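anyone seen this seq b4? input:
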Amino acid sequence: MAKTKSAFFCKECGYESGKWLGQCPVCHQWDTFVEEKITKSTAGKVDRLTGEVAHSVLLSDVTSNEHDRITTGMEELDRVLGGGIVKGSLVLVGGDPGIGKSTLLLQMCLALAGDGVNVLYVSGEESPGQIKMRADRLHNAGKDIRLFSETNLDRVETVIENDKPDIVIIDSIQTMYREDVASAPGSVGQVRETTSTLMKLAKIMGITIFIIGHVTKEGVVAGPRVLEHMVDTVLYFEGENQVSYRILRAVKNRFGSTNEIGVFEMCQKGLMEVSNPSEYMLMGKPEEEAGSVVTCALEGTRPIMIEVQALVCRTNFNLPRRTSAGTDYNRLNLLMAVLERRIGMALSGYDAYVNVAGGMKINEPSLDLAIIAAIISSYKNRPVDNNTIVFGEVGLTGEIRAVSQASNRVNEALKMGYKRVILPKANLKNLDVKGITLEGVDSIRSLIDIL
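predicted toks r here
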């Protein structure tokens, strides 16, 4: 027998309440509670999958499988996952529509099938014929993978139990539903219950399940936030439609670091791995042009060389324009105010445009010194040496403050063939790198003297 009752859930954080509330007491969002019907079974306490009564185990009797990982055949994906796929894990992959989530996982499946891994691709949005067309576009060189187009999770569960695959792809979690949950697919109750069922399957049967989640306009996975707490790993696939590169970032990872990123390029044949993002970002950089400065930014723990461009020209209006692309607009205004106040550079009569080439969006403070150098270079119409990179944080008094992981940035510059690095003087005492000139600066005035 089953007992049915109603409850109210917050769409943002998954908080449960017995009555409707105007504001969620946990995430403090307004008008986010929706009513869902909950069905609680009064059946026996024997597990349906194992047929055993629940019992505990001793920690000393548990064997660790830390090194028993499955490599995906894609080094960028393995890096983000922490070295490969962990058996029995539940991985959530989110991203904007059309960003390449399904393409990435289908490429992974084809590569795994070529290594003899049993893969099941479950799609609630595409037919097997549509998936076949996408696989042909990717030039399927591996063995066949099993396809199943269904949105009923009970039938999907039966197929998983019968086929016993090693890897399962669910595309997407918002299309799946359970018949015993009286709500529409994609609702709070359905997403929570379907994810709970998949998590149980993954842990009991020892299979790895990848679930694809749609992203809302705010940039978070659609559905309750409790979904991110239930899974083992949360990956976000980021990128702009106007640029060809994509970044895979781990927001949560129980089996590895969340500081790693994977870089891909969208091509006609699918997603291609970018093993050297710095070289990719600097393609087409102009030579001996004023307002162009190279810096080294960090994406997680990965240093990436990028170009910062600035254009300073006289304004035709009473209020000069300030425009930034790829960096914080307010930060640009702050840095220009520092230039005016501390070194007397009259920028109030000039428009200023700053751009991070390649479509990257960088918000870390180490970009400050490169923006300052690019503005000064454009203002004086004097180019910065092509073999020089600049990084450092700028304070309101014009001082240059130390940044994190300076050694990784310098080593990346050395690997890319640069001859000189201008960096905060506070970082010099901890660096001992041969083959490249290191020049420390402690203020904007010393930066101008060096440039």
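Residues 119 and 294 are 44 Å apart (CA to CA). The longest strand covers residues 302-314. kinda curious what u guys think
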